[in-house]
Amino acid sequence: MTLTMLYSLLPILIIAFGCVLSLLLIAWRRSQHLILFFTLAILTSALIASLLMQFDVSQAVQVTLLLKVDGYGHFAFILVLLASIAVSLLSSRWLQNSIEVHDEYFVLLQLVVLGAGIIVMSDHFGALFLGFELLSIALVGLVGYCKVSQYSVESSFKYLILSATASSFMLLGIAFIYSQTGVLSFNVINEQISYGVFYQAGLLLFLVGIAFKLSLAPFHFWTPDVYQGSPTPVTLLLASVSKVAMFVVLMKCWFSQLALFAVVPKGAGIFFIMGLLAVLSMLVGNVLALKQQNVKRLLAYSSIAHMGYLLIVLMIIAPQSISLAWQSALFYLSAYVLATVSIFMALQLTQNNDELMGEINEWQGLFWRSRMLALLIIVAILSLAGIPLTMGFIGKFYLLNLAVEAQQWWLIAALIIGSGIGLFYYLRIIFVLFLTEKNVNVEQIKWLNNMSFFHRTTIFVLTFMGVFLGVFPDSLALVLTLL
Amino acid sequence: MNVLSPLQWMFYLAALLAIVASLKVITGKNSVHSLLYLVVSLLAVAVCFYLMGAPFAAGLEVIVYAGAILVLFVFAIMMFGLGKDETLNAPKITSFRVWIGPSVIAALLLAQLVYVIDSPDIQDKLTSNVINAKQVGALLYGPYLLAVEIASFLLLAGLIAGYHFAKPTGYHDNNNSGGW
After folding, report:
1. Using a CB-CB distance cutoff of 8 angstroms, which residues of chain A are in contact with residue B170?
2. What is the pLDDT of residues A393-408, one digit of tens each?
3. DSSP code string of A390-401
């Protein structure tokens, strides 16, 4: 380990150090506020450390065999950190409702971030697997965190068993790939050898493991239940951090093995399966979301569709377009994370007590009660739907651009049909916001009028970011071209 | 298809035994009986490792899994007082029939091991390149140092999550509960 390696790993090291320090802090004094501020401080310093890093793909630093720190990984980690800062801010409000001191919650949160950091930086199947497990185990603890609530044990068990299944599939896949290539690193040494059927089977099993985590179409069944059963901040964590990390590592792995697919005699088969997964996810996600009454379930299905759209970036064949694919994916992921954070922020702020289950109807007439919150929801929903002048539109534009370049007409058709179906349920939420209310929840109004300055600022910043980056997407796109 | 060499025969037999034992683990009704099969399954996996020329991994498998973790399992089952569930759902034990399955598999594994150690032909193949503890340690504390660290964080995550689930609900609400 040289100094350069340590320096490039700094953000991850800060998080790891934070985990250990928080354990000491808990031993010293158990206080809800203290651990919250400590977690925020750790996450923020990791964020500052990653912002100060050199963003340059040509200067990627290989840290031992396991990790490779590059600009894409850094950008993804920044997204992860921003999302987790939002999660800890949201959790503070939810956790204050009960008397107990929730310090293990924040330790688990930091461990999730650590796992995500390792995943996005990994360059080796071993590191990928360890990071994947770290992320899953810590998330299992968080999903079932609120033990008194109705669905918590059910959803955490579902998540535990399914992620264990996913990891065993992935392990078998990795073993198959290793048996053929003889290296566990993502980078293949000899690109000219044609690997046999075991390599393809391994790749397929590996994809199954990743698809479970990304909740792509045939492996999506856990998503709505787990989303609904877990506490709102944890759902946000599942929807943003875990998805971003898994997708980024999938891209890393896929693009470094891209040269192999050309040599494999039936290399087109892998592309066909990927395309099938994408089309299925887009259609299934959007169609199942149509009739949902619960915001979390709706977002779960819409996340399936979004991950389906994102798979388009993997369909490129020419190695020259890899950097464009990275830009598109990272832009789309930023748009997705920003919109998801906004919606969950609004959901958590309107769910002021346990009676509210997060049904869409609870937002009825919200516009007339709290303009700011309604505006935040509208910007986020429009971005998810991909209406022009939002980030989501630019993201979809990137994807369409790539799909045309790769001549994937079926995927383009599915993308357009999916977005069309999506408009229905996205716009329904906006209509509900403007409906005049019938049954007024007095407590909610009281709470909404007394929102603290802190919450108002957060809402304002999120809305502003959504509008600004939608109108001036260049500001982010330029950063992405520098990576 | 080529005829399998004796070494391959032995390997596939051990693998088959591992699969059978694992199936018995998940189909068993009594958790202690399942544990018995689990031990046998882990031993079979250890034999598999040995037959692949990794005696160190085989030794670890026996010591760590069949030894330490299984003992932990037994302790957990005894201490968590599943007592009533256990006695209600368990079949009445009138004879030593439950022994038969695991002992047959274990005896088969033993026979395999004796055969493999006894046969000079197979021993030649197995001892040609043995990966010993020193090599594994050098790898773990060399290029894979970070993996060891990440694994320790993984254990920490499991520990904290487990602690949270096992913790009695709301013990902070009534401060006179004592203990903690």
Report:
1. 99-100, 148
2. 999 999 999 999 888 8
3. SHHHHHHHHHHH
